[in-house]
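Milestone 3.1: sequence recovery, worked example.
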């Protein structure tokens, strides 16, 4: 469900025609819908009303400050994977006690920052990290609340580049080492064992692999409690899939919650959720303009002003994005087949191959749908292209919530050494 729809022959975000935003801000740019975010958070919160839970929104999906502030007002906490994301979440008004810290490579500086912010939980992924955290926390005279992220050795079933729960993945503590690591955690100063954490991947539409991972996690929790570990929380990670095109029917949050309710049963734990894509994916689009058409012997290239540096998902993991014209095409417009590409000098700068759509002409504006998660956050300045603007819509108003840097700002971080001046 999202709030992007055609009205009066124009694609709107809520009450705002996207053409008006493209004219005011230029393309490419990202546009986010407050109503869509609100709806997604409510659906998740309602599905989990009878389960003690914390919705720790995964900041890496979209860390824009206005997005975070919107989600904070809706009651979300945050799941962060770096000191920078932690600072973003705090700057958006998310309290430290509603923040969990994930990721395999936390630095000691990141740990110290998180301890001083009094975060809810560290999701620790290795013995080395556990020892480092123990040292940092002890030196500060603090106790770090810790869950170990376990690797349940379950294949998530999605694209291999976004699977994280198999034994060959870098994520989580290998299953056979978990008991020893909990024993170590219980002994280390500055560590307070509080939970078990699992996250097996992203864009998972089928609940079976998640259920398998959670069942193992719940069994492990019971066993750890028998061994004397005071486990009061299970962090089930994120990973719920969203529909990217017609016919996609991923499991909805209600079914996901029902499955978790069943698996957790009477365990009496706080359930921590780390949804990212399911909140933001369909809450954002990227706008672009067609520059040129180029005919090759066996195909037509549709060349856009947006490139893989602006939206990397297709190049990174062969992701599909629907592409809709901002001006509704007339029904009698011919269907054409395009290879949709950007201006970047890389062959992987291709958004779609042989995509059937109504005829596009140079100057036409297009929207890449479902680009709210892992869109702007993954963008770069490759080919000296400034990061694109981000716009937040709320009803009939919109505002630029991240402006595009000007070229001089891109150069500001660089300096010539003496011998070149
Ligand atoms: C990326 C990530 C998430 C969010 O995943 P989604 O598929 O966007 O819901 C949650 N937890 C961890 C640890 C992650 O790395």
């Amino acid at each position: 469900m999202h709030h992007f729809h055609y009205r009066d022959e124009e694609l709107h975000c809520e009450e705002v025609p996207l053409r008006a935003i493209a004219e005011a801000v230029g393309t490419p740019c990202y546009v986010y819908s407050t109503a869509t975010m609100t709806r997604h958070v409510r659906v998740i919160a309602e599905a989990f009303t009878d389960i003690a839970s914390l919705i720790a929104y995964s900041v890496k999906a979209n860390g824009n400050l206005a997005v975070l502030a919107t989600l904070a007002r809706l009651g979300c906490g945050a799941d962060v994977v770096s000191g920078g994301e932690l600072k973003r979440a705090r700057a958006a008004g998310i309290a430290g006690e509603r923040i969990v810290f994930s990721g395999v490579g936390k630095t000691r500086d990141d740990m110290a920052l998180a301890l001083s912010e009094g975060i809810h939980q560290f999701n620790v992924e290795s013995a080395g990290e556990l020892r480092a955290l123990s040292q940092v926390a002890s030196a500060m005279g603090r106790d770090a609340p810790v869950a170990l992220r376990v690797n349940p050795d379950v294949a998530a079933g999605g694209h291999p580049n976004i699977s994280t729960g198999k034994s060959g993945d870098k994520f989580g503590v290998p299953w056979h080492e978990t008991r020893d690591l909990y024993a170590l955690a219980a002994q280390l100063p500055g560590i307070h064992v509080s939970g078990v954490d699992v996250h097996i991947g992203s864009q998972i539409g089928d609940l079976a692999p998640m259920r398998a991972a959670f069942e193992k996690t719940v069994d492990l929790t019971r066993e750890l409690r028998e061994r004397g570990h005071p486990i009061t929380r299970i962090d089930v990670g994120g990973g719920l899939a969203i529909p990217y095109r017609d016919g996609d029917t991923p499991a909805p949050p209600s079914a996901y919650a029902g499955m978790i309710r069943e698996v957790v049963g009477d365990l009496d734990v706080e359930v921590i959720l780390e949804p990212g894509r399911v909140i933001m994916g369909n809450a954002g689009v990227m706008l672009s303009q067609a520059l040129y058409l180029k005919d090759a012997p066996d195909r037509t290239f549709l060349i856009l002003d947006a490139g893989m540096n602006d939206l990397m998902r297709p190049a990174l993991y062969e992701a599909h994005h629907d592409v809709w014209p901002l001006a509704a095409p007339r029904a009698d417009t011919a269907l054409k087949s395009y290879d949709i590409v950007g201006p970047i000098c890389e062959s992987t700068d291709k958004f779609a191959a042989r995509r059937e759509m109504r005829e596009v002409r140079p100057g036409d504006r297009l929207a890449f749908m479902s680009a709210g998660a892992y869109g702007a956050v993954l963008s770069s300045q490759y080919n000296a292209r400034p990061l694109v603007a981000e716009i937040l819509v709320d009803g009939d108003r919109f505002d630029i919530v991240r402006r595009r840097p000007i070229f001089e700002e891109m150069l500001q971080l660089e300096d010539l050494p003496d011998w070149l001046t």
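The longest helix spans residues 207-226. The two ends are 56 Å apart (CA to CA).
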